[in-house]
UniProtKB/TrEMBL annotation:
<feature type="site" description="Involved in the stabilization of negative charge on the oxyanion by the formation of the oxyanion hole">
    <location>
        <position position="114"/>
    </location>
</feature>
<dbReference type="InterPro" id="IPR016117">
    <property type="entry name" value="ArgJ-like_dom_sf"/>
</dbReference>
<feature type="binding site">
    <location>
        <position position="179"/>
    </location>
    <ligand>
        <name>substrate</name>
    </ligand>
</feature>
<dbReference type="Pfam" id="PF01960">
    <property type="entry name" value="ArgJ"/>
</dbReference>
<feature type="binding site">
    <location>
        <position position="402"/>
    </location>
    <ligand>
        <name>substrate</name>
    </ligand>
</feature>
<keyword id="KW-0055">Arginine biosynthesis</keyword>
<dbReference type="GO" id="GO:0006592">
    <property type="term" value="P:ornithine biosynthetic process"/>
</dbReference>
<feature type="binding site">
    <location>
        <position position="276"/>
    </location>
    <ligand>
        <name>substrate</name>
    </ligand>
</feature>
<dbReference type="InterPro" id="IPR002813">
    <property type="entry name" value="Arg_biosynth_ArgJ"/>
</dbReference>
<keyword id="KW-0808">Transferase</keyword>
<keyword id="KW-0028">Amino-acid biosynthesis</keyword>
<protein>
    <recommendedName>
        <fullName>Arginine biosynthesis bifunctional protein ArgJ</fullName>
        <ecNumber>2.3.1.35</ecNumber>
        <ecNumber>2.3.1.1</ecNumber>
    </recommendedName>
</protein>
<comment type="similarity">
    <text>Belongs to the ArgJ family.</text>
</comment>
<comment type="subunit">
    <text>Heterotetramer of two alpha and two beta chains.</text>
</comment>
<dbReference type="GO" id="GO:0006526">
    <property type="term" value="P:L-arginine biosynthetic process"/>
</dbReference>
<feature type="site" description="Involved in the stabilization of negative charge on the oxyanion by the formation of the oxyanion hole">
    <location>
        <position position="115"/>
    </location>
</feature>
<keyword id="KW-0012">Acyltransferase</keyword>
Length: 407
């Protein structure tokens, strides 16, 4: 597997575009198009929040129906959530406008929205933006990057990734873009992510590859504990690599699934590290566990602990908060057997052994915790299973961003 430049336009046959439609923002692009030259098999995973935005309902219907998808229209600024029949009708209007502008089927248009909940989409601005997107689309890597920028809300940077693999003697590419900074909590999926591939693959294999991977990637991140109304991951495969069609469970499937995991994990970590107001990516590894379920419960509890997150913000090795979070995680373990380590580019230090503090250097611990990427590893000494979760520190910046988000 090779990492390559690009994102959603890295794979053969995919194009993208962005534009400033003025949906909410007046100083930046706020609409993006992802387009395939041929219809794609489509897979998706969506929020488990009972309150689902209109675009989520629209995309769920398309993925379930088995329709081939050829375009995705995404807007930022307004989420089109809690907007009733009128909001869902705007999804229909969006699909119709995209179908006319691109010369494709309305059933082949997926939709993504992100932003303020409860406001209606200014549909005239949206449909005008679609016409611009259709005229500007191309396969350049720069257009893919600009599309990734256009779907941002409070994100501080675009998030994109692409890799190449070989399947049946053919070069296959998997690329993607994502957005997410706030209202992020693991429950499939707490953000928007759009993955494209030129692989020839069955719809069954495509959906299983995505569904099986989200539990170890997007579902293992948290910024603030809030599961969004708009969480969506769409995976599109157009088959233009002309590889032998990938079937579920085959060796080729395993190769493809590994590539997809690499892209998803990268994007998930970028979202976690770009949490609103964050200064550090906080990675938590639970090791020596008797089951993967136990490991995930432990890692998630620590990464979601606000007290631990504020300690990371203060570069404070307050290990008691970590052990406390592990204790209320719901996983059973012996706290008197736990070893805990902190690690970053500045070094590695063991903080506790068998549940009690070692005579470590607070100055050294602070130095390690002052890096932009910090890892805490908890070993419960019960088995060979492990899991990793990702989050960020919690700073005053989070409050400042969210206190006036609507305005």
């Amino acid at each position: 597997m090779d990492m390559i430049k690009g994102g959603v336009t890295a794979a053969k046959g995919f194009e993208a575009a962005s534009t400033a439609a003025g949906i909410k923002y007046t100083d930046r692009t706020d609409m993006a198009l992802v387009y395939s030259q041929v219809p794609c098999e489509a897979a998706g995973t969506f929020t488990k929040n009972v309150v689902k935005a209109a675009p989520v309902k629209w995309d769920q219907k398309i993925v379930k129906s088995g329709c081939k998808v050829q375009a995705v229209i995404v807007n930022s600024g307004i989420a089109n959530a809690c907007t009733g029949a009128e909001g869902y009708g705007y999804c229909e209007d969006t699909a119709k406008a995209a179908a006319e502008a691109l010369g494709i089927s309305e059933d082949g248009v997926a939709i993504g929205s992100t932003g303020v909940i409860g406001r209606q989409i200014p549909i005239d601005k949206l449909t005008a933006g679609i016409k611009v997107l259709a005229e500007m689309k191309d396969h350049s890597l720069s257009n893919g990057t600009e599309a990734a920028k256009a779907i941002m809300t409070t994100d501080t940077a675009e998030k994109e990734m692409a890799v190449e693999i070989e399947v049946g003697g053919k070069k296959v590419t998997v690329g993607g873009m994502a957005k997410g900074s706030g209202m992020i909590h693991p429950d499939m999926c707490t953000m928007l992510s759009f993955i494209t591939t030129d692989a020839a693959i069955t719809k069954e294999a495509l959906q299983k590859a995505l569904s099986e991977d989200v539990d170890d990637t997007y579902n293992m991140i948290s910024v603030d504990g809030d599961t969004s109304t708009n969480d969506t991951v769409l995976l599109l495969a157009n088959g233009l690599a002309e590889n032998p069609q990938i079937q579920y469970g085959s060796d080729d499937y395993k190769i493809f699934a590994e590539a997809l995991h690499t892209v998803n994990e990268y994007l998930a970590k970028k979202i976690a590290g770009d949490g609103e107001g964050a200064t550090a990516l906080f990675e938590v590894k639970a090791v020596g566990c008797e089951s993967t379920e136990q490991a995930k419960l432990l890692a998630k509890a620590v990464v979601c602990s606000n007290l631990t997150k504020t300690a990371i913000a203060g570069h404070d090795a307050n290990w008691g908060r970590i052990l406390c979070a592990m204790g209320y995680s719901g996983a059973q373990f012996d706290p008197e057997k736990v070893d805990l380590y902190f690690e970053s580019k500045a070094g590695k230090i063991q903080i506790i052994e068998n549940g009690t503090a070692l005579d470590y250097s607070e100055a050294e611990a602070t130095k390690i915790l002052s890096e932009p990427e910090v890892t805490a590893t908890a070993d419960v000494k019960m088995g060979s299973c492990a899991a990793t979760a990702w989050g960020c520190d919690l700073t005053h910046g989070y409050i400042e961003i969210n206190a006036d988000y609507r305005s």
